[in-house]
Structures are given as structure tokens and as C-alpha cells.
């Protein structure tokens, strides 16, 4: 799902080329542009903190935080109500947003 930058978060639209296998990409057809992959999150991050940060860019429909990740490998999906909100969030936060 993209590179892991030093000191920044990796925000990748889940429809990014090569980010999903063809079978998985088909499953996300029609909703992929509303969903962002957020990588390099701090261990134990709370869903409420992700919601607070990404909610600035539009209505969030769902947040999925992967549980049981290796240390320093925490990630999440943030799904927005509208594709343009997801794009605005990506543009504003990609490799810039820092969580404590």
C-alpha cells in the first residue's frame, strides 16, 4: 500500500494502481474513491483521534483500524460519504499529518 515515509503518514486512495490485487479491486469498485488507506499510525491509536483529524474534510461513513499489527505497522481505512471529501483529505494530509 505504498511507501512508509520517514516522519509522515502514508495516505493512499484505495483505488491507487497496484495497491490491491485485481480480485480485491473488483470488490471495491464504486466505493474505492471514497476510501483512504492511512498507514504509519502510532501503536494503539484511537478511532476517535482519526475521526477528529479526518472529519475536518467531510462526513466520515466508517473508520476501520486494523487490530493486532506489529509495532510501528498500525494502519486504518477511512471511508468518506463523498469521493471529493476523500480526495480533499488526501491532498491535505498525505505525508504531512502527524499523530502523537
What does this structure look like?
With about 100 residues, the chain is α+β, with helices and mostly antiparallel strands. The chain has helices at about 20-25, 45-55, 85-95; strands at about 10-15, 35-40, 60-65, 75-80. The protein is built from 3 helices and 4 strands, in the order E-H-E-H-E-E-H. A 4-stranded antiparallel sheet has the order 1-2-4-3, covered by helices on one side.
Counted beta strands: 4
The helical percent reads: 25-40%
Side-by-side strand order of the widest sheet: 1-2-4-3
Tally of contiguous helical segments: 3
Mean pLDDT score, rounded?
Answer: 78
From the alpha-carbon coordinates, what is the Rg to the nearest angstrom? 13 Å
The helix/strand order is EHEHEEH
The fraction of residues in strands falls at: 15-25%
The low-confidence parts are 1-7, 15-26
Assign an overall shape: globular
**What structural category do the secondary elements indicate?**
alpha+beta
Largest sheet data:
4 strands, antiparallel
The CA-CA distance between the termini, in Å, is 22 Å
Amino acid at each position: 500500500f505504498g511507501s512508509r515515509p520517514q516522519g509522515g503518514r502514508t495516505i493512499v486512495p484505495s483505488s491507487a494502481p497496484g495497491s490491491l490485487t485485481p480480485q480485491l479491486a473488483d470488490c471495491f469498485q464504486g466505493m474505492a474513491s471514497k476510501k483512504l488507506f492511512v498507514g504509519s499510525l502510532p501503536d494503539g491509536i484511537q478511532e476517535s483521534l482519526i475521526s477528529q483529524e479526518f472529519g475536518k474534510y467531510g462526513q466520515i461513513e466508517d473508520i476501520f483500524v486494523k487490530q493486532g499489527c506489529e509495532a510501528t505497522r498500525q494502519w486504518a481505512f477511512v471511508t468518506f460519504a463523498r469521493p471529493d471529501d476523500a480526495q480533499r483529505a488526501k491532498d491535505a494530509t498525505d505525508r504531512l499529518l502527524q499523530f502523537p
